[in-house]
Amino acid sequence: MLQGLGGVGKTSVAVSVAHRLQRETDQVWWIGAQDASRCTGGLTALARQLGVPDEEIAVGRLADQLWRRLSALADPWLLVVDNADDARLLDGPGRLALGTGLVRPHRSPRGLVLVTSRDGQPGTWGDHAVLHRLTPLGDGHGADVLLDLAGPSAGSREEAAELARRLGGLPLALHTVGRYLAAVGQRPARFRDAGETATFAEFRASLADGGAFPHAGTATALAGIWRMSLDLLTERGHRCVRPLLEVLANFADAPVPLILADPAVLGEDEAFEGVSGAEIWAALQALAGLGLVDLAAANGVETVALHPLVRDAHGSPGRYALNARLLDEAAESDETGVPEDVERWPLWSALTPHTVHALTFESGSDDNELFLVTWTAAMLAARSLYAQGQLSQAGKVLEELVSRLGGALGEDHPNTILCRHNLARILDDQGDYDQARTIFEDILATQRDTLGEHHQNTLITRNNLALVLHSQGDYDQARTIFEDILTTQRDTLGEHHQNTLVTQHNLALVLDDQGHLDQARTIYEDILDIEHNTLAENAPSTLITRNNLAVVLHSQGHHDLAAAEMAAVLSARRRVLGPEHPYTLSTQRWLDTINAARGEP
User: Fold this and answer.
1) What is the pLDDT of residue 340?
2) Average pLDDT, the chain
3) Residue 304 CB-half CA count within 13 A
4) Taking Cα atoms as reference points, which of 334, 362, 369, 339 lies closest to residue 351?
5) Which H/E stretch holds residue 155?
6) Residue 410 near residue 403 (C-beta atoms within 8 A)
7) Residue 256 host element (H or E)
8) Of 186, 295, 308, 318, whose CA–CA distance to 242 is shortest?
9) Spatial separation of the C-alpha atoms in residues 480 and 489, rounded to whole Å
10) Are 551 and 597 in contact (CB under 8 A)?
11) Which of 36, 57, 277, 408 has the most CB within a 10 Å radius?
């Protein structure tokens, strides 16, 4: 593992190692461990990619199954676990120090686990960990960094070495100062303002006395350096750099999608009054130019990222209200669309850490004030996690929302009921049928009293309750409920309404399990005819129908037809949902079962 203080370059070394190994293999995985959600989510996604069945993950066997798969890999591989400063997040059901946690020792010549952390206590990691402590750069190497960035016009090598010594050789500090001096040095001396430092010697003199750069006060000392950088940008006419950096620093320790820097929303705040979108973009580029932020794009999403130390130094609780408005507007914008839309998943994946982090915002006067602004964004993020198959993470978000909405608005408020309903769906999918049933029955009693028996929300709850009954094996009661709902929906919504189609589909599931295969097949085929005319061929709901039709064909003995259809669904799901999505893995298992019935290995 790589250990050292913040800004010493742990992540940079890990990136270099990963890039080198990528020349030999594509089995290189990177997991952020800044918080439990990202750590567990990353390991879960990796486990699914390696073929761990969802049911094994659901019963708490993620770590055992993951490391069994990794140990069996024939080709070289690397797993990087970055920013594991709170090692307790890696315990999982076991103990990290004993080698039974989520991250474990691996002595195979084919695989390597590389962890980066500020925590260098041997007792934290156990005897199996090989600790590599990264130390600040020496004066000579520090001088090289400063000269490379600022150039020889900033002073001699000796002066660069003296400044490097004053900065304690911390790579992040060297990088920031070098970029600052380079920016000042680009202008002729006559155009520099009084007090601007353009040389190594001037910058060293501008720092407070105190000998070598104090490691214990790294964040404070760096804040002084960054303050000088912000002063420079402000003098250059970038009037919004300070409040913009403060807003960005209030978000989670993850790349911030630029939709959260919307000029229209920022412009409503007095700190950005009269600031145009062009000025905000210029400020972002200027901040990136001095190394305070990084502008990048991943999976088609443009983001701005802050180093953790920059984030820690510039967060401003006074701007939480603005952050909350930015999140609320982004979550319900046309750009984010519907969370279940596969094409929007990359953007929702980028937004999710920030929607969850915003639940920690406090207004100082009313703890619920900011929560009631941000809860919708968190709920939509949970829906996206659910659609992407990340059930555990979605469930944790919804549990938090149910608890806080119940306290703020009441258990029977429609918003609380909405989140409880979504949580019950996840519990059903995870196999916790009793708890899901209890929640649905409680919601149904409230809706019957307030909305009436035939209100669409009441019917949706009855539908999901019947699905739980079906999961529990009570086919007769589930079928009776579905048939009753279907009669009402056909009369009120029509044959082709999405809600009507969902109920027909659920009825077909029960008919299949009861052995009424011909009836089930007819319903699926009728639904497919409608979906082919109204939806894309590979829309997720269409693929669900095709998958279940193939199951019925298999049950009828039409194994060749079933195999062909299931193979087509598998190909589409791999392309649309990804190879590790639970639906994709379920289809793979069904195809294996059908091929076994055909006599194929």
Assistant:
1) 92
2) 88
3) 26
4) 339
5) none
6) no
7) strand 256-257
8) 318
9) 14
10) no
11) 57
Give pairs for 513-522: CB < 8 Å, separation 24+.
513/470, 513/475, 514/475, 514/479, 517/552, 517/555, 517/556, 520/552, 521/549, 521/552, 521/553, 521/556
Residue 409 CB contacts under 8 Å (≥ 6 apart), including other chains: 415, 416
Whether residue 57 contacts residue 107, with contact meaning beta carbons closer than 8 Å, is answered with: no
Burial string for 27-43 (b: 16+ CB within 10 Å, else e) reads bbbbbbbbbebbbbbbb
- 131 CB contacts (<8 Å, ≥6 apart)? 1, 3, 120, 122, 125
What are 162-172's pLDDT values in tens digits? 888 878 788 88
Other C-beta atoms closer than 10 Å to the C-beta of 270 total 9
Structure tokens at 296: 């990048």
Integer Cα distance of 144 and 328 in angstroms: 46
pLDDT at 214: 39
- Quote the distance between the C-alpha of residue 97 and its chain's center: 27
The per-residue pLDDT for range 90-116, each reduced to its tens digit, is 877 778 878 777 777 766 678 888 999
DSSP annotation of 75 reads: S
The string of DSSP letters for 552-577 reads HHHHTT-HHHHHHHHHHHHHHHHHHT
pLDDT digits (tens, 9 = 90+) for 433-471: 999 999 999 999 999 999 999 999 999 999 999 999 999
Amino acid identity, residue 251? Answer: F
Helix axes 414-429, 367-387, angle to 10 degrees: 30
CA dist., res. 10 & res. 555, Å (int): 55
Can you give the pLDDT at residue 90?
81
pTM, two decimals, is 0.73
Kindly tell me the burial class for residue 472, based on how many C-beta atoms sit within 10 Å of its own C-beta (0-12, 13-18, 19 or more).
middle
Interstrand relation of 2-3 and 111-117 (parallel, antiparallel or unpaired): parallel
Three-state SS string across 290-346, please?
CCCEEEEEECCEEEEEECHHHHHHHCCHHHHHHHHHHHHHHHCCCCCCCCCCHHHHH
User: Which is it for strands 301-306 and 132-133: parallel, antiparallel or unpaired?
Assistant: unpaired
Which two tokens mark 102?
């989520």
pLDDT digits (tens, 9 = 90+) for 263-319: 999 999 999 999 999 999 999 988 887 777 889 888 899 999 987 667 877 889 999
Look at residue 211 in the predicted model and tell me its pLDDT: 41
Outline where 493-581 has alpha helix (H). 498-514, 517-534, 540-555, 559-576
Which class for 208: exposed (0-12), middle (13-18), buried (19 or more C-beta within 10 A)?
exposed
What's the one-letter identity of residue 444?
L
pLDDT at 36 over 80: no
Is the CB of residue 183 less than 8 Å from the CB of residue 290?
yes
- Report d(CA 383, CA 454) in Å as an integer: 26
The CA angle 570-552-507, to the nearest 5 degrees, is 105
Task: Note whether 236 and 16 are within 8 A (CB).
Answer: no
Query: Which residue has 């009507």 as its token pair?
Result: 500
- For the chain, give the number of residues: 601
Q: What tens digit of pLDDT does each residue of 468-525 get?
A: 999 999 999 999 999 999 999 999 999 899 999 999 999 999 999 999 999 999 999 9
Q: Are 327 and 336 in contact (CB under 8 A)?
A: no
